[in-house]
Amino acid sequence: MGLNMRKRFSIPRIASSEITSESAYLKRRDFIRAAGLAAAPVVGGLSLHSEAAKSTGGAALDYVAATPGVGGFYTDEKATPPGDIASYCNFYEFGTGKGDPAHYAHEMTVDPWSIEISGAVHKPGKLHLEDIISGFDLEERIYRLRCVEAWSMVVPWVGFPLAALLQRFEPTGKARYVEFQTLHRSDEMRGTRSYTSIIDWPYREGLRLDEAMHPLTLMSVGVYGKTLPNQNGAPVRLVVPWKYGFKSIKSIVAIRLTETRPATSWETLAPREYGFYANVNPQVDHPRWSQKSERRLPSTLFNPNRIATRMFNGYGEQVAHLYQGMDLAKSY
Ligand SMILES: Nc1nc2c(c(=O)[nH]1)N[C@H]1C(S)=C(S)[C@@H](COP(=O)(O)O)O[C@H]1N2
Ligand SMILES: [Mo]
Fold first, then answer.
1. Is residue 105 part of a domain?
2. Is residue 224 in a domain?
3. What are phi and psi of 238, to 5 degrees?
């Protein structure tokens, strides 16, 4: 993401060089596929590191496959290949380059893991990784993911509704928002050690309680039927398909129910550019680029695969009622 704010931070921009190297990279991958060769080498700053290739093959999960017809849980749009999902990532804890998470996220220890649930709940407590993977009925959801930077993917997630988790801890009548925090362990997250780091770690996100309880809102533990690659937010991350990707916070260690709206990382950094709601909206441009269309991955120089962006990322039928009476140009 590009930013214009606090002077003590350096400002990463979406450089045209990055877009070029990505195209070259994707073209090379097409070539590798066509030639029937194993992917491996480095091209420019982006590579399918052997570690990343390995981590696309996590442990197999038991889950109910997505079926066509259920409101928003399924799309027949072509799913983005696993190698692209695992190698083109945003996870600033490991660096700001799209290839950095695939290179470095294996340095993060994801077992043991737990999520602490606190705040306005009758039964505060901890969920351990075992309870997270085996304590909920896992299902597949094939969702569009639309990044605020105007690229998108189609991802077959495996997970369970966030609502099922929250209900276990029994939110009190005072709970109106949900705040999430990512792990912050600087010895395993090189992006958080850097002097040019732009975020006040840990990465934080938030939802209104009704958004959090919506059936589309997923806690994901897997992709393509296997546990998540670290770079995609292992062992458990949020997926909110009608909002820009930065709301879908990765590698969650804390969830707090609150009475007041939580401060979130990107809104705090650049409130004019990244709002709390962050609903996908082709009518409201980012101050520095259009949101009317997006590059659907895989995308190449000769086939950029540019498509129109849809209101609420195509989930309006399911979620528009949550925002009735709100001015979405103001509450962006
Ligand atoms: N902790 C954390 N979560 C994060 C991010 C991040 O930098 N740190 N990036 C966000 C952004 S901008 C996007 S687009 C999605 C990307 O998810 P993916 O890399 O699995 O496709 O993760 C989101 N979750
Ligand atoms: Mo994003």
1. yes
2. yes
3. -90, 150
pLDDT digits (tens, 9 = 90+) for 195-221: 777 899 999 999 999 999 999 999 999
Q: Which ligand is nearest to the CA of 249?
A: 1
Q: 146: CA distance to ligand 2 center in Å?
A: 7
Q: Is residue 286 part of a domain?
A: yes
Residue identifier of the C-alpha nearest atom 5 of ligand 1 = 91
What is the CA(284)–ligand 1 centre distance, in A?
Answer: 21
The enclosing domain of 267 has a CATH number of 3.90.420.10
Q: Bridge-partner residues for 254, per DSSP?
A: 116, 181
Asked whether 203 lines ligand 1 (CB < 6 A), one says yes
Q: What is the pLDDT of residues 266-315, one digit of tens each?
A: 999 999 999 999 999 999 999 999 999 999 999 989 999 999 999 999 99
Mean pLDDT of 170-177: 98
**Phi and psi of 125, rounded to 5°?**
170, -165
For residue 159, with 0-12 CB atoms within 10 Å meaning exposed, 13-18 middle and 19 or more buried, which class applies?
A: buried
Distances (CA, A) of 320 to 185, 206, 323: 38, 19, 6
C-alpha 173 – ligand 1 centre gap (Å): 31
Give a yes or no: residue 273 inside a domain.
yes
What does the pLDDT read at residue 1?
60
Residues with CB under 5 A from ligand 2 (ion): 90, 147-148, 245-246
The ligand whose atoms approach the alpha carbon of 96 most closely is 1
Q: Are strands 125-128 and 218-223 parallel, antiparallel or unpaired?
A: unpaired
Tell whether the model's pLDDT for residue 3 goes beyond 50.
no
Q: Atom 11, ligand 1: which residue's CA is nearest? A: 246
pLDDT at 45 over 90: no
Domain with 166 in it: 19-323
Q: So what's the pLDDT on residue 140? A: 98
Strands (E), 97-233: 114-119, 125-128, 139-146, 151-161, 177-182, 204-208, 218-223, 226-227
DSSP 8-state symbol, 172? -
